[in-house]
């Protein structure tokens, strides 16, 4: 329990004997009444004591040289902190009504005449001391009440914050549940098509046309699964800050035209009116990621716009930014959803008749990729049925002309023998068969140590090495091959499911010439082998970046 100071009584008298008599008299009751007595010999000294202490009551002599009692009382009550201290004037003279009036005007609470009657003094002092103690108790209770109120307000604020955080967590959990359900749906659809097509190929009396269609379905749906995996990995990398941009000057108008041409060629925009207005604008960015940004915006417009609707693509340039706007006449966005359309796991209602399907994570990825480029993204909609508008700002840069690398034709290049080191049996068998169909002589191995043994015997021109091998991994395989003088000329291509810039760096440091991200389509693989075995092959780092971009696109 905190220590409580005793009430204090100030006795002011210029006469030493009178001062001693009053303080001694008050000291008799000090223990009983629980107060403390302080003495002052003048008005000036009294004012100094008032500056240092709070007093329950002041016994003030009227007739003092220099500053008399009335002047002292007036000075005490002019100070805000001491304005309410009760003052009892003590005088040896009979005070008339004018004296009393003057005293009360100076803030006097009472008058005592000398010689002072002890019982009367005790009674008066007791009242003021009790009143001071009561006031102090009230102040203490008020402080406790204020502290309690502050604590309650703080607790209430924390409770409201916890309630809001719980609501947010519940919304996020619900959104994740919906996302997982959508992911299951998006995975099962291509898997079902692949399974059915594979079963069809195994049936007797299957015609050539049916076989061709089944193969195309398997290829198309496998690519679709690859895109789903890429989207999930890209989102994870973007949210964890692990995407590194390969920056270069990019003409956004040319990039958008190329993307739109791809969409037209594949027929994805055939049922829509697409209006395009492009102003030439250059940005310092990653071509692959900028294509990803625009493709996701266009995919979003196609998803939520019924066939026959219109999509407007506008590219403008101001002094500081290149501004891309994609507007559609689709289903629009509810006002409560609009602030959250770029959040992870947030998408429109699953009951919409969407033209393209997908995971609904494209806009979250768009925002993160735009931010990595130093830009910003906005969404706007007048409401359901009123369409949507997405606007992206990217920092503008000046056009920089770079020399074009000359790529040699390699169609007549002699095909090298190939070593394939892959621990997945099905993947190893299928890739070996595809390479054989393209005229390559292929040997293969199921782990790193076996692959080294085959390499010493076979002496391949190119080795395709999976990174995640049992025994020793692909990095160690490359290091050992590079350390052997007889096998230093083997061109090494890493096959991996890891596509970060850090993964590419590790691949090159281990001694690989190129880095391909699974799944690798056969065209990209053929180009990679041809570029490495050409007489004027590109530098390893350049080839890695270019081939990785080709596989990821």
UniProtKB/TrEMBL annotation:
GO molecular function, a single term: phosphorelay sensor kinase activity
GO CC list: plasma membrane
Segments forming a coiled coil: 128-155
Stated name of the protein: histidine kinase
EC class (word): transferase
Chief location of this protein within or outside the cell: membrane
Annotated InterPro entries: CheY-like_superfamily, HATPase_C_sf, HATPase_dom, His_kinase_dom, HisK_dim/P_dom, HisK_dim/P_sf, Sig_transdc_His_kin-like_C, Sig_transdc_resp-reg_receiver
